[in-house]
Amino acid sequence: MSNKLYVPGTHPDLPPPSNTVGVINWLKTNLFSSPTNTFVTLVCLLFLTQLLPPMFNWLFIDAAYGGNSRQECVAQGSGACWAFISERLNLFVYGFYPIEERWRINLAFCLLLVTLAAVLWDRIPARKYFLAYACIFPFIATWLLIGGLGLTEVPTSDFGGLMLTLVIGVTGISFSLPLGVLLALGRQSELPIIRVFCISFIEFMRGVPLITLLFVASNMLSYFLPPGTNFDLLLRVLIMVTLFASAYMAEVIRGGLQAIPKGQIEAADSLGLKYWSTMRLIILPQALKISIPGIVNTFIGLYKDTTLVIIIGLMDPLGIGRASLADPAWLGLSIEVYIFVAIFFFLCCFSMSRYSLYLEDKLVTEHKH
Amino acid sequence: MTITKATKLEQDRQPCIIIKNMHKWYGDFHVLKNINLDVSKGEKIVICGPSGSGKSTMIRCINRLEEHQEGQIIVDHVELTNDLKNIESVRREVGMVFQHFNLFPHLTVLENCTLAPIWVRRIPKAEAEATAMQFLQRVKIPEQANKYPGQLSGGQQQRVAIARSLCMRPNIMLFDEPTSALDPEMIKEVLDTMVELANEGITMLCVTHEMGFAKQVADRVIFMDGGEIIESNTPQEFFDNPQHERTKLFLSQILDH
Q1: Which residues of chain B are within 8 Å of residue A367 when distances are taken between CB atoms?
Q2: What's the CATH number for A88-97+154-368?
């Protein structure tokens, strides 16, 4: 760059020097900047060339996509036996839900997608109506899945597979957030009774493993409840999972609340806003924005923890997988089953993670550099 | 001339803030000691004093951001007690501008200005926005209405904060060191706005170290030290003929550099 002279006060904005932009330059600075860096890059490349082709072959090229037993798979190739998954796909997705009623799950799933679009995407046209619909969606979904009022009733013990994961995950996520907000605010309340209750609840829930709570939900509650009460097991699990996640949520949100400068409350007070207006309009929007990474972290943890229900006999995808592995025709295919389940969970959790990044980016109100 | 102006004020105007024998403690620490102050409607008062003298605490007591433990504070015939209704009604009528602006960073400038009118006064959104634009015009930044506070300079942010308070159409404005966090170049734009506001006749209490501002607009200058009001006088008397030793020392320190 020529160092041309300018009259003071007239220096124009110049483009950055050419050695700081471009692909070659990126490679140079990031992969081959020093002998050590070059060495590490080459070793990694070697590893990848050794690792990726066989993995790709096993997963796709040598894999068997059709067939009715493991023998038929082996005859087709030495790779993965996806025939097993495709044969059991319905079981993985719907659990033991009656076959002729499975359209209800499909419908509920489509309605869930519409709800998610309305809640997560604020540029949807006529969002007001979609949000109103989102509020009644839980009732519609419950009706569709359980039945009654004209639909055949399906006992919740028939629920299973990915559908069960979604039911527990979505319920836990959507109820633990508002509950967590209330607990976090309650923990800072000036009223001792509310504060003590919230602190004890949070500390108890965080101090006990989820499995213990699930056992309590499945076995112990029947000792405490009046004899003869029939309290649905899935409902008990949903409540426990939600309460458990809400305790973690409360602490994440408390972190966000504490990061808001006191001046924000003072400004709101000085304008005459009442407590709930201040929280709803000023404090929570900012606190939740800061807490997004922690909130989504808790969501993802909760979502994966749904697999623990296998311990009290609910058939989540892992449970279905283990049951399927016991089939004599398909012995020894655990890798395929676990890869399949892992992909399902990864897709869900990765989407949540990406959405949280999108949201964080969207909520930036300062200069973007 | 200033003396007659002051006496005229006292005769013509009824007090809109009465502080009587007010004390405040932070734990064991006695921050405000026996504060007595009457402020007439339309009066401009500048409060100065060394840091830690209790000036900010005192004006924060007027809209109950701080609670006093003894004595009385009556604002527009409403006494400040633990009664939330009273506190809310006082806060609706008293605007406040802070040292660090305290704008709501997640809302645009316009939303900052319309929030309280919409949610506290229940004014329709369109009307609140029209009012807000009018006040933004008055503080000379209507073109920034749709930006976020983080995108504005300090001086602009403080002017937005003034506009935000004015949108509630308060009878009384409290300023808590409004220019202390600003670069010298921006102090003037904020002071100009405040002078303009003062000339429109609003009641104003301002904690500031801007002595030029005090001379220009104040009806009364109050000097505080150690939690007490040491001296209270017209600006002319205060600067030219300070009565108290402590005041003389303070003035010599801030004026001699």
Answers
A1: 150-151
A2: 1.10.3720.10
**Distance of alpha carbon B9 from alpha carbon A93, whole angstroms:** 82
- Residuewise pLDDT in 10s, chain B (257 residues): 445 555 555 545 578 999 999 999 999 999 999 999 999 999 999 999 998 899 999 999 999 999 999 999 999 999 999 998 999 999 999 999 999 999 999 999 999 999 999 999 999 999 999 999 999 999 999 999 999 999 999 999 999 999 999 999 999 999 999 999 898 888 999 999 999 999 988 999 999 989 999 999 999 999 999 999 999 999 999 999 999 999 999 998 887 65
Q: Rounded to whole angstroms, how far apart are CA atoms A179 and A95?
A: 30
Report yes or no: B24 and B68 within 8 Å, Cβ to Cβ: yes
Phi, psi dihedrals of residue B37, rounded to the nearest 5°: -155, 125
Q: Which two tokens stand for residue B175?
A: 């300023």
For the beta carbon of residue A369, count every other beta carbon within 10 angstroms.
3
Judged by DSSP in three states, B71 sits in: strand
B249 strand-pairing partners = none
Residues B80, A243 contacting (CB under 8 angstroms) = no
Judged by CB atoms closer than 8 Å, whether chains meet at A271 and B116 is answered as yes
The token duo for B57 is: 């605490």
* Domain ranges for chain A: 18-55, 88-97+154-368
Mind telling me how many Å the CA of A277 is from chain B's nearest CA? 8
Biggest CA pair distance of chain B: 55
Helices A102-120 and A127-146: crossing angle, nearest 10°?
160
CA atoms of B216 and B194, how far apart (whole Å): 11
Handedness of CA A347, A353, A356, A357 (dihedral sign): negative
* CB-CB neighbors (< 8 A) of A264 in chain B: 102, 104
Instruction: Check A271 against B151: CB less than 8 A apart.
Output: no
Residues of B in contact with A286 (CB under 8 A): 104-106
Whats the size of chain B, residue-wise? 257
Chain B: residue whose CA lies nearest to A281: B115
Cα gap A12→A5, rounded to integer Å: 11
User: Cβ(B72)–Cβ(B18) under 8 Å?
Assistant: yes
Handedness of CA B90, B94, B98, B102 (dihedral sign): positive
| Contact of B103 with B110, CB cutoff 8 Å | no
Q: Are the C-beta atoms of residues A317 and A337 closer than 8 Å to each other?
A: no
Check CB contact of A266 with chain B, cutoff 8 Å. yes
Q: Can you tell me the distance from the alpha carbon of A147 to that of A44, in angstroms, rounded to the nearest whole number?
A: 55
